[in-house]
Amino acid sequence: MLISLVVPCFHEADIVRRFHSHVAREIAPLAPTAEFEFVYVDDGSRDATLDHLREIAATDPRVRYVSFSRNFGKESAMLAGLRHADGDAVVIMDADLQHPPELIERMITLHSQGHDQVVARRTRAGDRVTRTLTARAYYRLVNRLVDVELVDGVGDFRLLSRRAVDAVLELTEYNRFSKGLFAWIGFPTATFSYENLVREQGRSKWTFGKLLNYGLDGVLSFNNKPLRAALYLGLLLLGCAMAYTAWIVGDALVNGVETPGYVTLLVAVTALSGVQMVMLGVVGEYVGRIYYETKRRPHFLVSETNTSPRPAPGASPYPGDSLDSLGESVARTTPAA
Ligand code: UDP
Ligand code: MG
Question: Which site from 1, 50, 108, 145 is most exposed, i.e. has the minimal number of CB atoms within 10 Å?
Answer without folding.
Answer: 1
